[in-house]
Specification:
Length: about 170
Amino acid sequence: PRQLCKLKNLGELILSNNGLSGSIPNCIGNLNLLQTLYLSHNRLTSSIPLNLWGLKNLIFLDLSMNSLVGSLSPNMTKLVVIVDMDLSRNQITGNISSIIGTFESLSYLNLSMNSFQGVIPQSFGQLKGLEKLDLSYNNLSGAIPKSLDALPYLKYLNLSFNDLSGEIPSG
């Protein structure tokens, strides 16, 4: 995969359903034209490189069904055009970064089956185009943010198998 980092004009990188193992190369963040990154269904064991969040043209990101570890950095960069982000079925820990709530174009977010803890960020109420949100099978606690009431297009919400408490927002 490190050889792929030399392909500066690469717009799509689809390597799902292979036997890839090891880490996601740090140089992936140098592929400035990358719009689609699918590395799902492999055996990747690294943390997500911080510079991956600097890919300003990234629209589709699927890193699901690996063994990715570490946490999502609170210093993640705002991804302006991302529409679809799936990090499910990994071993990611820590809090869900509130910066995700500023990903204005996001319509699908799946962070299920990880080990996220803490609260669901209030900033998720700013994801006005969000249609599907799956945070199931984590260690999230606290209340379901009332800010989720403001999501006009939300069709699917799965928060099951967490440690949430309080009222269910009425909206």
